[in-house]
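User: I've been trying to design a sequence by hand for this structure and keep getting stuck. Would you show me what you'd pick, starting by listing the structure so we're on the same page?

Assistant: Good idea, let's start from the same input. This is the structure you sent:
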């Protein structure tokens, strides 16, 4: 039942939002209010008390159109969840709250609330226990009449007991108003504004959110200057009153155009174009006879380091084509952009059918007198495995090589060990069928770099993968 009541209160507050229309919102200064309430009060589980119905009374006084104070007294009958104590319990809450109101529409007024006071729990026959309490929360008022409103509140109540208890309160009520807001206009001089409309804009101060509007300015229902194009600059100051929605404007309500190229900053992709340069719809300079773009890649010839880029290729800021998978076919015209490293491709960037023995660009380098694959080349091993998984009919030969340091008695078995090291990694780590892999050691007989330099010898200590066509 208590869960249902909480849902009804919460749903009721949401429904109030949908009832907005012009009408009676009256949170006038010096207004008194009287609000009987019903609700649900939920105790923290540490207190071992059942959730109970709440009956209360609020007496309020509006200090301004936004701020008001309320004195509150509430009664909650409840029961103990423990068999140790008597089940006959009741709670009495009395506190003072401050409320700050917002204006959503003429009938809908949301508010924030916070306050402090005490809570007394009376347990027969053991006496009463009183503790300090603090509450805060939100609420909503729906004015159905100039002197009456339906109201909903949701509050968290913090009780200073042996440790802080976190209770919850859900309530609805009818709020009635009297006094205040009934000042009559003065006739001290012809044309003088009414006492309750200090800026003479036709909106009473009690609901005027812009009380210093200059004389003669057209205002909305809240007493604020009208801003037809909603750019943040009211019409009476707006030198560009028809600004399209979403554009950034200056203090005069006109669109910002920092480089003065005729394209607003909000949609200018080249916001620092030199003054006088012709631009396209994005605010970027148009090519001229002097600054042409002969390959049409979007980079002017004077800045283009690769002026013969094929049509459709993606280029960097220097005008040079990108080739993400390093297969020789540029991004943008590569139909198979994720090709594994070293795989032979056709002119569209897609793998060729293997019809003859093909040596790939892939190779793995080793330290001197070592046959262990270094972590830096694990990615290369994965790419070879990915290719073999992609084309299960292809077999490969793994060639092992050394530099010219040492004798053939050392280098022949070392080159074979390096080839077998890659085979073992492909089989054990990536599940490649060993029957698809053959190995051979070539010792130092096939160098690819100068063995007289350390750098050249490093490149020669390698394994190379050779693709074999399907049988």
């Amino acid at each position: 039942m208590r869960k249902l009541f909480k849902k009804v209160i919460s749903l009721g507050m949401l429904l109030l939002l949908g009832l907005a229309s012009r009408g009676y919102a009256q949170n006038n200064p010096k207004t008194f209010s009287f609000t009987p309430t019903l609700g649900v009060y939920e105790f923290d589980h540490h207190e071992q008390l059942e959730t109970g119905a709440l009956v209360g009374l609020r007496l309020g006084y509006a200090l301004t159109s936004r701020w008001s104070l309320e004195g509150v007294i509430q009664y909650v009958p409840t029961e103990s969840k423990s068999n140790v104590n008597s089940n006959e319990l009741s709670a009495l809450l009395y506190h003072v709250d401050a409320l700050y109101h917002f204006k959503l529409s003429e009938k809908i007024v949301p508010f924030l609330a916070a306050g402090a006071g005490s809570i007394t729990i009376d347990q027969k026959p053991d006496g009463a226990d009183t503790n300090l309490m603090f509450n805060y929360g939100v609420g909503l008022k729906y004015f159905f009449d100039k002197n009456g409103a339906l109201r909903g509140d949701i509050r968290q109540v913090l009780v200073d007991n042996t440790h802080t208890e976190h209770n919850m309160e859900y309530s609805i009520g009818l709020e009635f108003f009297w006094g205040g807001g009934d000042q009559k206009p003065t006739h001290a001089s012809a044309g003088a504004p009414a006492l309750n409309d200090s800026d003479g804009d036709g909106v009473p101060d009690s609901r005027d959110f812009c009380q210093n509007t200059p004389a003669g300015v057209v205002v909305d229902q809240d007493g604020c200057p009208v801003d037809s194009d909603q750019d943040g600059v009211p019409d009476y100051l707006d030198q560009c009153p028809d600004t399209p929605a979403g554009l950034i404007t200056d203090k005069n309500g006109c669109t910002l155009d920092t480089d003065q190229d005729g394209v607003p900053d909000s949609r200018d992709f080249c916001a620092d174009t030199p003054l006088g340069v012709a631009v396209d719809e994005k605010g970027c300079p148009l090519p001229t006879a002097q600054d042409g773009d002969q390959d049409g890649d979007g980079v002017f010839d004077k800045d283009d380091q690769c002026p013969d880029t094929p049509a459709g290729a993606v280029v960097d800021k220097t005008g040079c084509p990108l080739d993400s998978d390093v297969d020789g076919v540029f991004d943008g015209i590569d139909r198979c952009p994720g090709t594994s490293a070293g795989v032979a491709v056709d002119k569209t960037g897609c793998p060729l059918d293997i019809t003859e023995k093909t040596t790939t660009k892939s190779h793995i380098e080793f330290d001197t007198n070592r046959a262990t694959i270094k972590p830096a080349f694990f990615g290369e091993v994965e790419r070879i495995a990915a290719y073999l998984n992609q084309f299960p009919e292809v077999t490969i030969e793994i060639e092992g090589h050394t530099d010219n340091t040492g004798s053939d008695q050392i280098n022949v078995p070392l080159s074979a060990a390096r080839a077998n090291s890659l085979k073992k990694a492909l089989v054990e780590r990536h599940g490649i069928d060993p029957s698809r892999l053959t190995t051979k050691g070539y010792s130092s007989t096939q160098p690819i770099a100068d063995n007289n330099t350390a750098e050249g010898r490093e490149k020669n200590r390698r394994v190379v993968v050779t693709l074999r066509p399907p049988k």
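That's my pick for every position. To get oriented when you compare it with your attempt: The chain is about 15% helix and 30% strand. The longest helix spans residues 408-430.
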